[in-house]
Amino acid sequence: MMYENGRGVKQDYFKAVELYTKACDGRVTVGCTNLGDLYHKGQGVSQNDSKAKELYGKACDGGFDDGCKNYEILNKM
Fold first, then answer.
1. CATH classification at residue 17
2. CB count, 10 Å around CB of 39?
3. For residue 48, what are the domain limits?
């Protein structure tokens, strides 16, 4: 989150994508949700709502409520 928001380090969306991917692959559901946010916004990656929805779904399946909420939002778009 520090790289995404530029807190304590220089803002670097590419590094944020790298670290969120590692977290998500390690089943850290907040990492999946945050990575989904970057795909939804197109920050550090090409904008891709389909990929964002997939990541939100993974977070939701892991029990993370924010992932479920974001999945539902994209589902209504």
1. 1.25.40.10
2. 23
3. 2-76
pLDDT digits (tens, 9 = 90+) for 13-63: 999 999 999 999 999 999 999 999 999 999 999 999 999 999 999 999 999
Contact 34, 44 (CB under 8 A): no
> Which residue blocks in 42-64 are alpha helix, DSSP H?
49-61
Nearby residues of 71 by Cβ (< 8 Å), 6 or more positions away? 53, 56, 57, 59, 60
Please give the Cα distance from 71 to 54 (Å, whole number).
8
What's residue 14's pLDDT? 97
